[in-house]
């Protein structure tokens, strides 16, 4: 449950508000009330190429919808090895072509904002759009399905519930048997009052049995809405909706009775089936008991839930069995220990399916902290970005709090800069790491629906995967700020040497605290030395590295800062200088003078001088910036 971004909760509310409006003029209405949306986890590597493909597939879809008469379903793809794009769109069959195109245009522009450069799913009352980097057309039931209910209870709840349930069951049964996998129907309830309008639809690319499965799940979801007068259930392969208000014209309905035949949808035969089923249930129970016994006998442990890798679907946090993690880490053995921090230890764990994970064990004792922690974990588990370490799930047992993260083969950045693996990173890798960190932070600050300030950006919190792509780790200290709240906080959680002065001294917290930490990390990456390696005296300890960089900048002798292990022949002097200037701008003492991370991404991705961009801080910058940063403000 709750597997679309939590953002969807807001959408549900918006949907409520718009319900009555959209129902009014059922006949010529594109029905662009948003039901739900989910954005993809990982934007593709080359977003330019992706966007070209993205636009091309949409142009293709639009043409199909316009040119082929009454076409309400279409797919399009660019099936190249790199940046492939697959897209599927369909309208509810009762929409006119004009309304369908309107719904399409709305969905496309929503998708462009959904997760810039990556696609996802958007579901409206009137249409459905999904875009992925891999083929999905035959998928029907996927995590993230759910329902949106109206808020008015029917006047005769019991009768309404029973009869609407029967109606929806019939629709669920009939629709997979109807060519086109769509049915709109109206039924007068026997209480003399309400008529109920309902629609069931499967994507035309799924087969009948998947359609059946999908509607079964959808029925289970929508049933929660009864006895409210409106409800919708959504999934990837199907859609189910009912309302006491007409949302399609009477002449769009079909008679579903012929499709209920053989197996029998209504009363008498249903009873026979139920009787039969009761007999079957006993047999089933016996089999289940047998299976259970077998499981217990074979292995006392529960298998870990959920396939944690290899899915592009959005899902909420997975809860792990404590015992599973205990055995995966060999009882948190010293040999599996990867590191430890102030109040946590990290272990390498190998799950029974062979997947390697990182298990972070937190030493939090207060009950309140624990409650806070769990709710935060739930939010953070929905944060997905290529440059952020992914939280796979957690376990919460007694005093133990365990976080399960994807495992990063190359460990943390600091060991490559001034630790045991010093000298391994060439300039190209270092530059890519800088860009990656910037993108990850820009996502946390501006593209996720809640602004997340990391507060503790430092080289040891940047992990490297097998290919040296950087991923920002440790959201243990990140606090989620509601969009409208002041960014002030007195809680101090940073690491000396990386901490912005206004935060270290006054506790003033803003995204610019992370910009500062990022600037220090850049200096460490360039110099291969620790920011706080002269931990003596008073004042911010970063003065050493930062102060040195400032002086070198003033005398235009930037290259003296560069790590001596870097081969002077393989780095671009102008690039190094530019990055160093960027670091200095990011570490200015006035937070307002530091750029937003999305601006940093722009500066790094383009051949523009740093200074010019920095002062146009209210970014009315290029369209490329907009792709990276423009997230519709939904708060
Ligand atoms: C139900 O939704 C309507 C808008 O559709 C809203 O005005 C009303 O306050 C809601 N009622 C309740 C009880 O939430
Ligand atoms: C990104 O895509 C563009 C346009 O297709 C191409 O010119 C460029 O070489 C690609 N860059 C990378 C790094 O793949
Ligand atoms: C894709 O389309 C959008 C909106 O029509 C446009 O702003 C953008 O420049 C296009 N991108 C490419 C790469 O063609
Ligand atoms: C229907 O499609 C699903 C998903 O592709 C597939 O697993 C299943 O075998 C198909 N069933 C039939 C009867 O073709
Ligand atoms: C259905 O009824 C509407 C008016 O309510 C009319 O405009 C439309 O042509 C009708 N459609 C069909 C297929 O009869």
UniProtKB/TrEMBL annotation:
Segments passing through the bilayer: 272-294
Query: Can you give the residue ranges of the Gnk2-homologous domain?
Result: 32-136, 142-247
Name listed for the protein in its UniProt record: OLC1v1010282C2
Q: Which organism is it from?
A: Oldenlandia corymbosa var. corymbosa
Q: Which PANTHER family match?
A: CYSTEINE-RICH RECEPTOR-LIKE PROTEIN KINASE 3 (PTHR47973)
User: For this UniProt entry, which residues form the secretion signal?
Assistant: 1-28
**Which InterPro entries does the entry link to?**
CR_Ser/Thr_kinase, GNK2, GNK2_sf, Kinase-like_dom_sf, Prot_kinase_dom, Ser/Thr_kinase_AS
In this chain, the stretch annotated as Disordered covers 612-635
Its domain of life reads: Eukaryota
Q: Report whether Transcription shows up as a keyword of the record.
A: no
Gene3D superfamilies per the UniProt record, alphabetical: Gnk2 domain, C-X8-C-X2-C motif (3.30.430.20), Phosphorylase Kinase, domain 1 (3.30.200.20), Transferase(Phosphotransferase) domain 1 (1.10.510.10)
